[in-house]
Amino acid sequence: MGDVAQRLAEIVGANQVLTGEDIPDHYASDEALVGEVNRPAYVAKPATSAEVARLLGVATEHGVPVTARGSGSGLSAAARPRPDGLLISFERMNAILEIDTVNHVAVVQPGVTLSELDEKTAEVGLGYTVYPGEMSASVGGNVGTNAGGMRAVKYGVTRHNVLGLEAVLPTGQIIRTGGKPVKTSTGYDLTQLIIGSEGTLALATEITVKLHPRLRHGATVLAPFTDLDTVVRAVPTILAAGLEPHILEYIDALTMAAITYTTGLSLGVPDDVREASQAYLVVAMENREPDRLEGDVANLGELLGELGASDVYVLDGGSARKLIEAREKAFWTAKAAGADEVIDVVVPRSAMPEFLARSREIAAKTESGVAGCGHAGDGNVHLGVFQKDPEKRASLLHDIFAVGMELGGAISGEHGIGRAKKEHFLQLEDPAKIELMSRIKHAFDPAGILNPGVLFD
Questions:
Q1: End position of a domain, from candidates 42, 74, 89
Q2: In whole angstroms, what is the distance from residue 107 CA to residue 163 CA?
Q3: Among 37, 247, 432, 437, which residue's CB has the most CB atoms within a 10 Å radius?
């Protein structure tokens, strides 16, 4: 152990290596509600891609498992290190290297947070549009999990907004994939292969992201419905109308009550309407011109009434901002309410009513509770699961995941598999695909040092 620590210190400097009891607790965990918490044997904080490459060389030589960490805000236990492992923290690699206003891209290091990038791009009227609900999250972490968020209905998830990477392979080689061009048809798309691989294939050390113009005018509409099925059945019609919302969320009544109570938020919904409502749609729209926005809001309000909304409320700026912020923090609300797990199954939009109905039936059979909200515009359902018994909870989750896959969806839409959902993934996914993924993993990482235990055994 002393020899490895010395080698790491020679690369990044003795003051940038932590071992044993000197490692703070926060390096041992991410925000997943389940799974073991392990303090790693070593923490190293590189400042350059070359240092990352040399760290991986030492890890390969000594057979030390490696876990990468950005801000530690992930929800799948993919950023949790092994007790015998090396945690590479990208907190020092946090520079915004370039904001290119001609090509509408930014080039950043992986430790840059979303809030830092948002602040800098706002100065030139541009923005990075991936908002997974935690602005302290790092861009590198977003790449690892292919993070999404509420704006994905219009702008897509991380993989739709990353054009290129510099990445370090576990063999110590540094590669560049993609770049500033917006399209390529030149060999395998290694950028997209690395995105969402949860630190098992390579470590991104530089990221080129798309930027979009910031639209100055926005409005948020809240529509209560008397039942959840009517809410989710309304979503395809709204999208087909060509209104192009950049946020289209459903929130069930229990979750809405929780987030408004914890934030002290009053939305102006009369008591009788609130008491009769089982779910809500939150629709946010934006435009360059205020008149066009006003027309879109009027058309949306009329359409929502036709689709069964009890009423339609255009929220004032302060209330709208607070509601969106509260929705972004729904995970923390569920955690505070005692949720034992939070999942993010994704299904085709048309399958959302059946998925939610069958999930409620499965939960009732096991005397469990499920409540939540979701990105209705892209079929990503976030459920807080309330079941203290680990065996019952595992069975419940397995059955819910199986239903999602049966309906043409996937176990995770944006949180990733990590360690938390690995067993379900391995049992439910096509064995041929698992075998192919394993061969890809071996091609990138023949020594098997990168995040062992994540995705695969």
A1: 89
A2: 10
A3: 247
